[in-house]
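idk why but the lab printer keeps eating my pages so im just putting this in chat instead. protein + flavin-adenine dinucleotide:
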Amino acid sequence: MADCVIHLNSGLWLTNRHVVRSFSWILSILSKMMRRALARRPLFPPAAALLKTRPQRTFAFAAQVSPLQHVRIPQGTGQEGSSSRGAFQNVALAAVGAAAAAVGLATGLEDCTHAEKKSDQDHVFMNWSATHECHPRSFYVPESVEEVERLLQEYHGKRQKLRCMGAGVSPNGLGFSGKAVEKDENEAMMTLALLDKIVKVEKDKLQVTVETGMIVGELLDKLRTYGMTMQNVASIRDQQVGGICQAGCHGSGAGIPPIDDQIVEMEIVTPAKGKMTLSATQNPEIFAMAKCGLGALGVVTKVTLQCVPMHRLAEKTTVMTLDEIRPNHNRWLVEYQHLRYMWIPYTDSVVVVQCRRLEDDERIDEKRFPPVKHSDAIRLEAPRKLYLELTKGKPAPDYLDWSFTKLRDKLLELNPLDKEHVIRVNEAEKQFWLLSEGYRVAYSDDIIGFDCGGQQLVEEVSFPCTGTLDLDFMEKLLKRIDDEDIPAHSPIEQRWTARSASAMSPASAANPHQIFSWVGVILYLPTAEEKARRAITDRFMEFYAMYRDFMEPYGATEHWAKIEWSPDAADRQKMRDRLKRRFPVEKFKEARDEVDPHHILSNHIVDEMCA
Ligand SMILES: Cc1cc2nc3c(=O)[nH]c(=O)nc-3n(C[C@H](O)[C@H](O)[C@H](O)COP(=O)(O)OP(=O)(O)OC[C@H]3O[C@@H](n4cnc5c(N)ncnc54)[C@H](O)[C@@H]3O)c2cc1C
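predcted complex ->
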């Protein structure tokens, strides 16, 4: 079967065997379409136009992959069923599938072979890397907090699971619901994609109150109009605000806490206690638990976030060795608002990315901030040369159009688990970065995200730093990777945050001055071929088992959106014991029993921790 991978800039990935959508993309289209329809404007006219000429085969594809076609909208009675509003929504939702199909057509998707639709009820959610999927029995898109309350009452009464997802991006499928008992389908899910408005902006306090279904990228864009921005963001902006808070997400900057700690106040709807407002003064104990609550302590409907004034950053990229970093590292942590290292395994090189905040009136010119000197053609010379060699002079016709990350995927795809091959690819990456040194100056929200490459398996852990423990951690980790012949792909990303006051944050600490380092290892999934993906996944699980063993003496703990429970019962118990030493799990369980006594909001990831 011919391999076909299409990466659209919108965040949509299509492969001949997998369809991976950024849910934020689909859900934000849905949301906009609803509003347009309400304003009596045509529904997604370009899609409708393309639909007329679209072959049936492509439509079946869209129908199969659209998770939104089987939505059941809650009614005033709490019963599922259709209503004029529900029917209207289903029309809009079906049009989203059509829009996706039209995008496929516009990009030549019909040339690919599509998976067959299994049945009318087969609606599948997949995460960003297509590593986890979910087949919920019911999927709800409430339009108001009252609907959220009614839904939770209904499921609380029935004692059935109802998980609230965000954009569904999490590498471990954290937002998805657990498996229904002994069935190959999942329990019910909801998303707050239609609760996505800014409620209030308090410019004097630099605070924004926002409904949690809003996509982070959209919030950042809107904040610009108020001269404000978020303190930090993750490398991608596709998450919902609820998703980045509940999983304890972070960017980089030793003086900036993870995003859950930027919450000043939040509104949650709980199954047992209904709607609650949480802050440092209102229900402070539940607030400390629920800021990073893993979706298990209530459906978060609104958060007030502490922002900062919109500002520019000067980002400097250089390639260094560990010996060059060591004498400067602790100073840089203080000096730079954002600092990130990208370690290239099996080379002596670390890509150092330093961001300094510029004063509003600070002069910017190319003398002070010399940009990257070389053209893309020069920067890509080494990886392109390697690609030409390995494809024996028969490259893909469009290879000169590929970005560096796509080229890296294509190189790795040739032999992703062979250590010697991976070393050659990593060496080519080093050459790319050596020619990419230089400055970028732009607004912070344009700078701090970055291209993390294609589909991937990742494991990121966080640990408290003292002295140069964070650098020792890396030095020893790279050695262990080599000793165990792990074909480690590049980069291993290292970042820092301030502590979080949220009890369940991987960066939680009583000491307000404690700094945490976050280190993520990666194996890409550069192929759609099932057998190859399985082999990479198996190797990654061995890599992760080694990493678990390695990190334990450092008091490290996994990112909640990346933790994967081992299939082995003894390993799971070990993980559970470690989590219980790190987090107040008993208090978390007490809080959960109070607000959700039947644990309807939890999925298997949370239940496993609480077992
Ligand atoms: C390519 C890539 C890069 C990434 N980079 C980073 C990074 O730099 N830093 C980082 O920290 N993370 C990063 N992540 C992880 C990502 O930020 C998290 O997985 C995030 O939680 C995803 O948000 P989401 O909206 O998709 O939430 P989901 O994955 O859908 O859900 C995450 C959690 O939030 C809960 N939740 C969502 N909305 C609500 C709500 N309204 N009420 C209650 N609970 C809710 C869910 O139940 C679940 O527990 C990255 C992921 C990918 C794929």
